[in-house]
Design brief:
The protein is an alpha+beta fold. It has 26 helices and 83 strands. Helices cover 25% and strands 32% of the residues. It has an eight-stranded mixed β-sheet, with no helix packed on it. Helix 7 packs across helix 13.
């Protein structure tokens, strides 16, 4: 039993990896493809044709700005007005320049509107438009995307605009024929005003000497500005130009400092070169830069590295291609720069982003076929490994720009068409062992000794972090070799190929052998040595290398180097080197003088007489899913044992076994791979790989549409699927049948097949395409509808033809002429009738066809063929009419008699139905009464350890409830590298000292709050960063807080004393919230927190006790009427025996008894099984729910799969019911097998239905869809349900959890062993003193002050958000229940008595009888605190000092100080004036100026 569960636990750990490419976050834009995007501060800005979006760094949409509207020009540029509209609009503001100015919280957008238009937006909220005016920054219709970015020139910020020539309206003046470069103002106070490019008396600009310039990229590094461009030199001839500008004192001098160079790349393509994308490589001198170059064939691309450091000499220079305005036309020849290294030659590279990581250079590369590559480059600029970290299913060209997440630096933002992707730079978490982490050969990933998992380095603080070596060609973590000394003794030398990082760690080795422990001769990282005994052959040695807490063990079976002898073949050579020996003069040797690299073996002659050759491989192209049964033809294939596939710089080759080897041909399965070309060679038994042939992986087929989207139930309707890469499709599959679908290719992008028949309708059948071993779903399902009903026809003769009109009942089949074949029978012969029109109406459709015949014979029969069916219509005649007239009276008479009999029968049935309805309602009411009387509160059996969050994460969620980068920056967390934490510098140190001056701090707070632009969000931010910055001195923070509170309470005109502290509308009110949280954390953990966790657990269990609708999350047992599942059907309890499959051989664990309900869905059963598992064993079954499947035992050893949706699912209209235990007729005590799809893949793959974006529309569970259905199919579901009958469930739920609510409330307002927490006693005494000072005698005012400061400000936040206190997730349903409890909690502190009537909300009525008792307890609590012995000033200071000490070094004060200085910088003048009016001493004002000078003058202290 124990062993079986242990196997399961180990299996869980081993299944965390191996998921393939990681799923990425994505933002699907609307309004066209993405035109440009940029990243600044904590936000991402995306431009499409019709919208400008602002996203957070997780690609969550924050704001959107429509770019269509109306435009009214004005007399002056600033009077032009652009009015946005959500729909329509005659004008479009086509933005082509995004220029963020982070220091001033601005975003400049410029583009085409009229003759040009620019807007200045708030960087934090783009919907706040600060300025908009006509300005011709770029051409109205530029030929390409212009380059525009913010540069700093002599401590001023300007927008550098590199604008290409374009197509301008004749009314638009000011644009030269050629491209130009300008510097534009970003401030009204700059000379010339906002966006002006004038400088004193000049209009400085750089102008191209000729047309045909395409600007590609630009950036500024320290005092140098770089501009890259392509210059057209004639037909198919271009060159790449680099321009340098130096940061001078003025715009004119800056532009006149122009220097230039021509970038030459690469060998063989100098005449046809063009820059596609570029990226500067972070670092100091020299300035390294990466660029992607192409020639006239855009798919022929190369990635090269250059040293683009600007020249240090300053001679007079005139560029041949660009000139300062007014300079002569002739110019000097620029210098030519050649690449330091051509890193990669690869097909169709489109974008590049270079990142420095320790000694590594990581280059991210986008491609034209929709892939994101990661190239690892060592410190010598030698490319090591190339891998794919994301790929699109189709050929989506990656946008030329990419950006790195500026905060976490662990994601790359990539744009493809209309989508923006956030791709992780690595997938360290998928590697579950040190071995797999190391084999990934990823410099981002290393093994963290403390966490015992593969992680990023900054996730492993204060611990050993083992990463890959500098040489990624190593294939083993431990390698060994032999040394023979002068005395003939043999030493074993073990080399460790692990790079140490993080904390220092001890290094030691141990050698255990079959003859005992071998004596070590010393060890010094990374080598250790031992002396071997005389007899070596057959000796088994276990080498254990210890690095800190990490052990690496390698089992070695040693061979005698002298004994490895024979003909010098590759196999013998590789055996020799693998044994740790050296290879010299064609023989194996002990000494190290021989070659140790396996490459030497490839030059030797193989032992096979004739080497294998490859003639061809069929197919030579396939999708990245691979291909089964590929055929390879060649010569001398008899000894081939495998096929190896390896791409350029691929560090992990793939191998496939061979079958049906005839010597001249063989078959093999081509494994899945990445898009691109790989080389194939043939493996021989001696380890050699010979022959060469290319294979190309392409994008997978993508099913775009199915036409038509419906078919008749009898099948055989001709369907067309539009699909890309059609040639890779192996099979078309219908979801409702296992019958094989025959299809044919009608074109390169379309295939045809006939729909399969079914015996049921209507329903929808999904269509999937099988590609190799994968199935790809089509986006449109085929609707199966009843067969068409043809009613009658009439004929109308003409001169040379006969027209038939066929009447058909209207339907949704949308039949076309090609779906039908019509024949008319004339004189006993069939004649084709050609369909000319099909007219549709709401009742019947009319099909018109023409028979080309001169016969006068009437058409008596029409044969209509559709699919495989033929419908025969016979002409109506008078004989039939006569028979009809005779039969109708007989039918009418019979009908009257039947009606009279049925009327009596119907009355009896109605009486019976009313009796049944009355009985159902009685039963519902009785069951509700039984629930209330029998409900007990013993819900919690085993909740395990309470998962409290530690202090810093609790405080962070209180301080920064919205999360984000500021919260992360203010924490010293395990996800941060201490070496990379911001260090205290002079500016931050002086600011910290300045904050210790109460006059300055209070003046700053008052000044900020007086500013109209200072929002409530800003106030909360300032309060929280102040709390962090002063956390080491809580005593001082308390003094300042009390001083600010006194000022707020005593503010002149503040007559509404009862409103004080009611809302968070000031900095001090948010400080008070933070202060309460800091001081009460200990009380929360030691007392009230346990009660809160028990309440949350009890609510969760009570909700799960009854039916829960899987689609809406509504439940029968709840506290909230809004979440009440009053439509629930009858249900019964079902006890299941759950067994887990453990190990690889299918061993079963002992069964767990699980309580389920007959109405539970399959996923709900899974959750209940996992909950029982965790309660029993104390740890979670750590497999995602979607990767778990259940199988039901239907007989001894016979199991069937349980699925949320399958072919047997009930369908009502277009809505599918989720399968339940009742649907599968699951009996009690039955065995259910629990498997992981990772170890035991299902025969038919099925993704979770909840992944469907329209899940709530396409599926239902317990709440019936609003569609018509046959009531006879499920009479139980049609029972009348009344919401009011089930309101008793609210009361029964309240009874079940009431004891936990009472315990929680009394834990909060109880005073324990006679004493309230020190912070509460101190603050309540402070409020009492303040009331006495202000001569307030109304006891209600004091009661409200205390209520607003403690219950409302702190406890409500905790009760509503238990995830702030515990490591847990809060569902929307649980939030609704907690809202009811929180309302009762606050009602207990109210001084007014509310009279509730029958129309009062249920959340008020539920606790109405308990509130009076709670109010008495609250009053007693307040009295008890007031009468408690006062806490002395010294005692309270000791308490605060101890709280500061306990949580010292958990917050990053430097980050908080930098954030605070942003606001000081923004309102510096106003703060200075406030200090002046406050009579502040000159020393204090001088301190403030020194802080500003330090921050503004030191780059190390800048906050951008």
């Amino acid at each position: 039993m124990v062993f079986a569960w242990l196997l399961l636990f180990v299996a869980l750990g081993g299944l965390r990896g191996g998921r393939g490419l990681q799923e990425v976050d994505g933002f699907p834009s609307r309004g066209g493809d993405i035109r440009d995007f940029t990243v600044a501060a904590r936000w991402v800005y995306v431009v499409t044709g019709d919208y400008l979006y602002q996203l957070n760094l997780s690609l969550g949409l924050l704001h959107s700005l429509p770019q269509r509207g109306s435009y009214r020009s004005g007399i002056s540029p600033v009077s032009g007005r652009f009015n946005r509209t959500l729909e329509g609009g005659a004008y479009t503001f086509s933005v082509n320049t995004l220029a963020p100015l982070v220091e001033r919280n601005l975003l400049f957008t410029c583009g085409a509107l009229n003759c040009g238009f620019c807007e200045m937006l708030n960087l934090t909220d783009i919907t706040r438009i600060l300025n908009g005016e006509d300005f011709e920054l770029n051409p109205v219709v530029p030929k390409g995307l212009p380059v525009g970015f913010v540069v700093d020139v002599n401590e001023d910020s300007y927008i550098l605009s590199a604008a290409e020539e374009g197509i301008n309206d004749k009314a638009c003046v000011g644009f030269p024929e050629n491209s130009r470069i300008r510097l534009h103002n970003t401030n009204e106070r700059q000379l010339g005003g906002l966006l002006s490019f004038v400088d004193s008396t000049e209009e400085p600009e750089i102008v191209a000497r000729r047309s045909g310039v395409q600007f590609v990229d630009g950036f500024q590094i320290k005092s140098s500005i770089f501009i890259f461009s392509n210059l057209n030199e004639g037909e198919n001839a271009t060159k790449v130009r680099l321009l340098w500008f130096a940061n001078k004192t003025t715009k004119t001098k800056t532009l006149k400092s122009l220097r230039g160079a021509t970038l030459v790349c690469c060998e063989g393509v100098e005449a046809h070169q063009r820059l596609v994308s570029s990226s500067v490589i972070p670092g100091d001198q020299p300035v390294l830069w990466a660029g992607i170059f192409t020639d006239h064939d855009v798919t022929n691309t190369r990635l090269a590295i250059y040293d683009v450091s600007p020249p240090t000499d300053a001679p007079t220079y005139r560029d041949p291609d660009f000139r300062y305005r007014g300079e002569p036309s002739e110019g000097d020849g620029p210098i030519r720069l050649r690449p330091l290294r051509v890193l990669l030659k690869h097909r169709f590279m489109t974008s590049v982003l270079a990142v420095k990581l320790n000694n590594w250079l990581i280059v991210f590369i986008g491609t034209g076929d929709g892939q994101l590559l990661k190239l690892t480059v060592d410190h010598t600029l030698q490319a090591q490994c190339l891998s794919v970290i994301w790929k699109a299913p189709d050929d989506r060209r990656v946008f030329p720009k990419m950006h790195l997440d500026p905060v976490g630096r662990k994601h790359v933002f990539v744009a493809v068409r209309d989508k923006l992707m956030r791709v992780p730079v690595s997938q360290c978490v998928q590697h579950s062992s040190l071995q797999s982490c190391w084999k990934a050969r990823d410099p981002y990933c290393g093994w963290c000794g403390a966490l015992r998992r593969c992680s990023f380095e900054d996730e492993c603080p204060s611990s050993l972090w083992l990463s890959v070596p500098d040489d990624l060609s190593q294939r083993r973590m431990l390698s060994h070799s032999f040394q023979e000394d002068a005395e003939g003794k043999i030493r074993l030398v073990v080399f460790t190929h692990l790079k140490r990082g993080g904390a220092p760690a001890n290094f030691s080795c141990r050698f255990d052998s079959s003859v005992g422990v071998l004596g070590g001769l010393g060890h010094q990282y990374p080598e250790c040595t031992c002396l071997l005994p005389p007899v070596i052959a057959g000796l088994r040695v276990s080498v254990t290398v210890s690095l800190g807490e990490v052990d690496v063990t390698e089992e070695l079976n040693l061979l005698n180097c002298s004994g490895i002898s024979g003909a010098p073949t590759p196999l013998l050579c590789s055996q020799c080197l693998a044994a740790g020996c050296g290879w010299s003069n064609g023989a194996c040797t002990w000494t190290r003088s021989g070659a140790l690299n396996m490459s030497v073996c490839q030059a030797l002659q193989t032992g096979v007489d004739s080497l294998p050759e490859i003639i061809n491989i069929t197919p030579s192209e396939m999708s990245f899913y691979g291909k089964n049964n590929a055929v390879l033809k060649g010569r001398n294939l008899g000894h081939v044992i495998g096929v190896r596939l390896q791409g350029h710089l691929d560090c992990s080759a793939k191998e496939a076994s061979v079958r049906d080897n005839t010597g001249a041909s063989l078959t093999f399965h081509i494994p899945a791979g990445d898009k691109g070309r790989v080389e194939v060679c043939l493996l021989l038994p001696d380890g050699g790989c010979h022959g060469s042939a290319p294979l190309t992986y392409r994008s997978a087929p993508v099913c775009a549409s199915i036409s038509p989207d419906s078919t008749w139930a009898s099948g055989k309707r001709r369907m067309n699927i539009t699909v890309s890469n059609l040639k890779f499709v192996n099979e078309v599959i219908h979801s409702h049948t296992d019958e094989r679908v025959t299809f044919s290719e009608s074109s390169d992008q379309s295939l045809q097949f006939e729909s399969l028949a079914t015996d049921r309708d209507p329903f929808s059948s999904t269509v999937t395409l099988r590609v190799a071993n994968h199935t790809l779903a089509c986006p449109t399902a085929i609707r199966y509808l009843p067969d068409p009903q043809f009613i009658d026809f009439i004929s109308a003769p003409a001169a040379d033809h006969l027209r038939l009109t066929i009447e058909k009942k209207s339907d949704e089949l949308q039949m076309a002429p090609e779906d039908l074949r019509v024949k008319g029978v004339q004189g006993g012969e069939d004649h084709d009738c050609v369909i000319t029109t099909i007219e549709r109406s709401s009742g019947n459709d009319f099909i018109t066809c023409v028979i080309q015949s001169s016969s006068d014979a009437a058409v008596t029969v029409v044969k209509i063929r559709y699919g495989g069916q033929t419908k025969v219509l016979t002409h109506f005649d008078y004989v039939k009419l006569l028979l009809l007239l005779l039969v109708v009276p007989l039918i009418v008479g019979t009908g009257v008699g039947v009606y009279c009999w049925q009327k009596r029968s119907l009355t009896a049935r109605m009486n019976h139905l009313i009796e049944v309805l009355e009985m159902d309602i009685r039963n519902d009411i009785r069951q509700g009464f039984v629930d209330m009387q029998t409900e007990d509160s013993e819900l919690i059996e085993n909740v395990g350890a309470i998962p409290f969050l530690d202090y810093k994460h609790f405080a962070a969620k209180i301080f920064f409830p919205e999360g984000g980068s500021l919260m992360t920056a203010c924490l010293k967390d395990i996800s941060q590298d201490p070496r990379k934490m911001e260090k205290q510098d002079d500016g931050c140190g002086r600011l910290a000292q300045l904050l210790r001056e109460p006059l300055f701090l209070t003046s700053m707070v008052h000044t900020l709050e007086e500013q109209k632009s200072f929002t409530i969000q800003h106030k909360c931010t300032v309060a929280s960063v102040l709390t962090v910055a002063l956390h080491r001195d809580l005593g001082y923070l308390t003094e300042v807080m009390e001083q600010l509170l006194r000022a707020a309470m005593e503010r002149p005109g503040n007559g509404q004393h009862k409103m004080v502290l009611r809302r968070t509308q000031s900095i001090v009110e948010k400080v008070l919230t933070n202060w309460m949280s800091v001081c009460l954390y200990g009380f929360l953990r030691e007392s009230a927190g346990q009660h809160l966790y028990f309440l949350v657990s009890a609510l969760t269990q009570q909700i799960a006790k009854g039916p829960v609708d899987s689609v809406t999350d509504k439940a029968l047992y709840t506290l909230s009427e809004d979440w009440l599942l009053w439509q629930a059907q009858d249900f019964t309890a079902v006890k299941l025996q759950a067994v887990f499959v453990v190990g690889g051989d299918g061993q079963l664990s002992e069964p767990l008894e699980v309580e389920a309900l007959s109405c539970d869905t399959v996923d709900q059963v899974k959750l209940k099984i996992l909950a029982v598992f965790k309660a029993k064993f104390g740890f979670a079954y750590n497999i995602p729910l979607r990767d778990i499947r259940l199988e039901l035992e239907q007989g001894p050893g016979v199991f069937v799969a349980l699925e949320e949706v399958d072919r047997s699912s009930e369908v009502i209209g277009e809505v599918t019911m989720l399968n339940t235990l009742r649907h599968y007729k699951v009996p009690a005590k039955v065995t259910v097998k629990v498997l992981s799809t990772g170890c035991h893949p299902p025969l038919v793959s099925q993704s979770s239905v909840k992944d469907d974006q329209d899940f709530s529309v396409k599926y239902f569970h317990l709440i019936d869809p609003d569609v018509c259905e046959d009531q006879g199919m499920n009479p139980e579901r049609k029972k009348l349900k009344l919401k009011e009958v089930h309101l008793t469930k609210l009361l029964s739920t309240k009874v079940a959890v009431h004891s936990y609510v009472v315990n929680l409330f009394r834990g909060i307002w109880g005073v324990g062993p006679g004493r309230a927490p020190p912070a509460i006693k101190h603050f309540f005494d402070f409020l009492d003193d303040q009331a006495a000072r202000m001569k307030i005698t109304d006891p209600e005012v004091l009661h409200i002050w205390k209520t607003n400061s403690l219950p409302l400000r702190f406890w409500v936040n905790i009760l509503k958000n238990p995830q702030f206190v515990f490591d847990m997730d809060k569902s929307d349903h649980l939030d609704g229940c907690l809202s009811v409890i929180t309302q009762a909690f606050m009602d207990s502190f109210s001084l007014t008595d509310t009279k509730l009537g029958k129309h009062a909300p249920t959340n008020k009525l539920l606790y109405a009888k308990d509130i009076p008792q709670f109010k008495q307890e609250v009053k007693a609590y307040y009295n008890c605190v007031r009468e408690q012995q006062p806490i002395t000033t010294a005692e309270f200071k000791d308490f605060l000092l101890e709280e500061s000490r306990k949580h010292d070094n958990e917050f990053n004060e430097v980050a908080a100080l930098r954030e605070l200085y942003k606001f000081i910088h923004q309102y510096f003048t106003e703060i200075e004036q406030k200090l002046e009016h406050s009579g502040a001493p000159a020393e204090l004002k001088e301190q403030l100026k020194q802080v500003k000078n330090q921050f503004d003058g030191q780059e190390s202290c800048s906050w951008d």
